[in-house]
Model the fold of this input.
Amino acid sequence: MDNAQLLISGLANGCVYGLIALGFVLIYKATEAVNFAQGDFMMLGAFVTIGLTNTEYMGLPFWLALPISLGIMGALGYLVDRLIIRRLFGESQTAVVILTIALGFVIRFVAGLIWGHEPQTLQNPLAGKEVRFGGLVLGMEDVAVIVVTVLLTWGLYVFFSRTKLGLAMQGASQNQLAAYYMGIPVKRVQGFIWALAGVVAGVAGILFAAKGSVDPTTGLLGIKAFAAAVIGGFGSLPGALAGGLIVGVIEPFASRYIAAGYSQIAPYALLLAVLIFRPNGLFSQVRVKKV
Amino acid sequence: MRIVFKTNYMQDIRPWKDTYQLCLYLIFLALVAAAPWWLDDFYLGELTNVLIWAIAGLGLMILTGHTGQVSLGHAAFLAFGCYANVILLEAGVPFLVAFPLAGVLTGLAGVTVAIPALRLHGIYLAIFTMALSILMDDVIVLAEPITGGVAGKYLGGVEIFGFLVDRWGTPVQFFWLVLGVAVLVTLGYINLMRAPLGRSFIAVRDSEVSAQAMGVDIARTKMISFALSCAVTGWAGALMGMFSGAFNNETFSVLISIQLLMMIVIGGLGSIHGAFLGAIVIGFLPQFLSISKEYVGAIFGGNTVAIPGLEFGIFGMILIAFILFEPMGLYGRWLKIRTWFELFPFYRKDMFKRQKSYLKTERLR
Done:
């Protein structure tokens, strides 16, 4: 029973990692760039929602604040692309990586200035409610996290594999010049995907803030989500979720069955192992081009 | 404008362009070596710090700037060098043996890391090294009997030929030690870059396919690059340990790795000058911020509250500005200014313009 409880809480944590990883993968899939600031986007999404709903700030009703904050995050994602990332259009990935790391620093600094450095929680209608079945106790937030994550991953997966826009995005990432020739507005597609990634980060942030407390350094969680994305094989949406779940589950079990200190190490050790034995992740997207 | 007319190949691969340039650098070196006479102890310490960062930057520059392999984990090698040095010293090995050995050991550690890392490209390599850096932190804690764990280790002065070299006791001697290491590493670097090995590094960076076609063994080249880079970083780590005197697992966190990478980007990737220029920015930014904060506070009524994260925030903004407006870093800016003066009325705006490029996926190879 203990193990089942650990598993469930691990899964709920893993879903949050999975959601952040989803943001990484979205941007990678559509623009071939990696957004190291995704964790900080999530933190910002959490703080924006806290700023809108919590009584000490604006005190809007939760269900009203939800779309507003997601809208703000989407706009922010678009602006980041429009003002900063687009200037690096066609440059190497490395430049974007370094740029987004720097962006993460700036976001953390700004969030600290606005909302302070104290941990805060989101006041939400789900707080404190529990679901019991068969001796397991589940927080409503945990259930919400799992349900929302699975739905979102499925929705995005369908979007990428079935819709015209989704396919256009994949094309834009594989060869920008060829995509132009095919009539895909590559830059606009990129702007859209950054906005989408902002919204996903906002969802992740809201769920995270509902589950626990956030402070400006929460964004560093992104590194763990990064491990999740890589384990899943960058570029695969279900892979990102799977990676997130693996990381989320492995943490509590490592701290329980090995030693407390190992829960920090386990995800990264797993990441190294995966990279060594399957350099492109478990759900690899890399195919060798045949000449 | 000086015109250097090259008449043979030996002149082309000479480490300096002409006697004028050589003299300039020698004068500059003499000026820096004489720093103890024109700087007080505090600023001498800062200068030492800058030089140590510059050595670390040179280490990373070999790998990232010249071989094109992005590493977000060089703090792990800083830590390795630092601990190797201290442990050897504690075992009674004299400094002049322990210090080079620490670098060599770090180089070997780098080779061990390079073997799996060779299969990784671009972003995957960055993540791999970043994970290493995060793990190093925990490994130091877990290997407490050797490393002292969270409590850390202490290092006082060392003796070289009977002279005591200590950061606090004899800062001047320590400064010269660091300067000596920096000069030797830089000379080695300059020589490396004009040798076939250095050229093959650059070939691998610019295009692996072309390098392979020209007969460069990519795996071997990358491995050597890793080894050299880590060895130099190890020396920098050893010096950093001596500089701070006390260190534990948190001294070399993953943030240091990131800072190191950002430093060489600000300085200018792919140039030796870049490592030094970047180190100057990193080294003096905290001082500059605290001074300007006092200055601002004096004007707006004594508001000197510490703003947490300010340093990294400003740092991030500087970096974004550099990547957007001056991708070649400070050294690139210097090159432009110099060219402007050299060609005085004939400098054109588009002289250093980047070629338009389109990205292709790395998932299809």
Notes: The first helix of chain B runs from residue 9 to 12. Residues 1-28 of chain B form one domain. Chain B touches chain A through 48 residues (CB under 8 Å). The CA atoms of residues 69 and 121 of chain B lie 8 Å apart.
